[in-house]
Design a protein that fits this description.
By secondary structure, the protein is an alpha+beta fold. It is built from 16 helices and 17 strands. The protein binds one RNA strand through helix 14.
Length: about 450
RNA sequence: GCCGGGGUGGGGUAGUGGAUAUCCUUGGGGACUGUGGAUCCCCGGACCCGGGUUCAAUUCCCGGACCCGGCCCCA
């Protein structure tokens, strides 16, 4: 019985070796693709001054962070997201040649009620591109996100939904809204609430009644990114002077080169962060059963808030919690059997040194090798080898010592061959390489 | 912060207002002193916590924490 005080905290997870192996596959896939795109990995503190997050959000965020006072009375918090930290890192190194391409895979914390797709501590992949203010940059970021999902065996199983903060705000202005920022959260909730509620809240937030139908029809339909004008044509909303529409169409065009064709314009994609200024995007599983797998956008003003130095930026983040749910539901969550290992078994206390010597030779050769730390029956050692899923066992005893050899047992079929020690090691090395290539 | 549901060994379960709490599995050991996965044997391990009702609570009632899901919020 475990003491109550030893229970892990609510909303926190722990990962045993098999679970950690699966997660490692996710990390590695993300790293691999990031590097293909020229992104370099960074890391930063897990604890920061609460002010770093107040700067861009507001006081209500305090309730949603793991924040507290340290022994010096400072208000600090476990970081809930990457962007402020990454932005500061960039601001601190003004000499860095741009564009700067960075990614990270860190832990984050949010003090919320745990539920499906949400934990209080989670891993989140984050990528940012600093410097360029261009459609190419936006497309690269979405393209990178898509390439990572593809690498995770999700190709054809997700959809991207895109919107644009500046665009939406201008459209809202055309519709007679005086404070577009107040309307954004209502758009965000469109798919999660009833039409009546949405209409009521739109009126509440200052959308003129005569414009409600136009706005709803845009929210309802959505469109392919290149057909976005058609969507508005039916509504009678005049798009002249809104240059962002060209931007969105060009991003859509560029994404074709990334083999991403069916990008959807969706006015309900808002993203909660207030710092987004341009394009915003999210990726969902095709059934739309889950929260967004990833999300991001352009934030051109955040750097000037932090450093006083204006640098355009676009980025996105992908948490491991929703990703795991989506991948498991699509049977693409990696379930491997672990690494190739060899267990060295010995038949007596006298042969243990001989066995240990072989074990260490294997390790020097780069072959993961285990040996029983206790003198136990061969039967038990083989049982352990089997349970630890060793692909081969090496068995040594008086017979092998006499001929300076080692017996190799294939754990899959029980076949055995005795080689001279060096030959045995070479044999296992070859088998290991075949296994590695087979993966 | 709010709402709904849930709880018996590590996992899965049976059962009960009263006696040594059932079974499977997992774990440890052995039968098997040079051969794993089978079989058999032995061992370890549980009624979430607190209060109430009662002669007696794992069982009924209340509260709390926790787990699952939803709301709020979502950075």
């Amino acid at each position: 019985m475990i003491l109550k005080s030893m229970d892990k905290l609510r909303g926190f997870r722990e990962f045993y070796p098999d679970e950690m192996r699966s997660r490692r596959v996710i990390f590695d896939a993300s790293r691999k693709v990031s590097q293909l795109f020229g992104y370099e990995e960074i890391s930063f503190p897990s604890v920061e001054s609460l002010d770093l997050f107040r700067m861009k959000s507001g006081e209500e965020i305090v309730d949603q962070t793991y924040s507290f006072r340290d022994k010096g009375g400072r208000e600090i918090t476990l970081i809930p997201e990457a962007t402020p930290s990454v932005s500061r890192m960039l601001a601190e190194r003004k000499e860095l040649p741009r564009p700067v391409r960075w990614f990270s895979f860190e832990k984050y914390w949010r003090y919320e009620e745990p539920q499906a797709g949400r934990a209080r501590e989670f891993y989140q992949y984050n990528a940012d591109l600093f410097g360029p203010y261009s459609e190419m940059a936006d497309a690269e970021m979405i393209g990178l996100a898509g390439a990572i999902l593809n690498e995770l065996s999700l190709k054809g199983k997700y959809s991207f939904r895109v919107s644009h903060r500046g665009f939406i705000e201008k459209v809202l202005s055309k519709l007679g809204v005086s404070n577009p920022a107040a309307v954004l959260p209502v758009l965000d909730r469109y798919h999660k609430t009833t039409l009546e509620t949405t209409v009521a809240r739109l009126i509440e937030t200052g959308v003129p009644e005569k414009s409600i139908d136009q706005l709803i029809s845009i929210l309802k339909e959505g469109s392919k990114l290149d057909k976005i004008e058609d969507l508005f044509a039916d509504t009678g909303i005049d798009l002249t002077g809104i240059e962002e529409i060209g931007w969105l169409k060009r991003v859509g065009k560029l994404l074709e080169s990334y083999s991403m064709k069916d990008i959807v314009f969706d006015a309900s994609v808002v993203r909660g962060f207030t710092y987004y200024t341009g394009i915003v995007f999210e990726a969902f599983d095709l059934k739309g059963e889950n929260r967004a797998i990833l999300g991001g956008g352009r934030y051109d003003n955040l750097l000037s808030v932090i450093s006083g130095n204006s640098i355009p930026a676009v980025g996105f983040a992908m948490g491991d919690v929703v990703l795991e749910i989506v991948m498991k539901s699509l049977n693409t969550w990696p379930e491997d059997d672990g690494a190739f290992t060899v267990t060295v078994c010995f038949t007596s206390g006298e042969s243990s040194i001989y066995a240990l010597d072989i074990c260490n030779k294997l390790r020097k050769r780069g072959i993961p090798a285990l040996i029983s730390p206790e003198t136990r029956s061969l039967s038990t050692q083989l049982k352990d080898a089997s349970r630890h899923r060793s692909r081969f066992s090496v068995i040594v005893g008086d017979k092998e010592i006499a001929q300076k050899g080692a017996t190799i047992r294939d754990m899959a079929d029980g076949s055995q061959v005795t080689f001279p020690v060096l030959e045995a090691i070479k044999f296992l090395d070859k088998k290991r390489n075949i296994t590695l290539l087979g993966q």
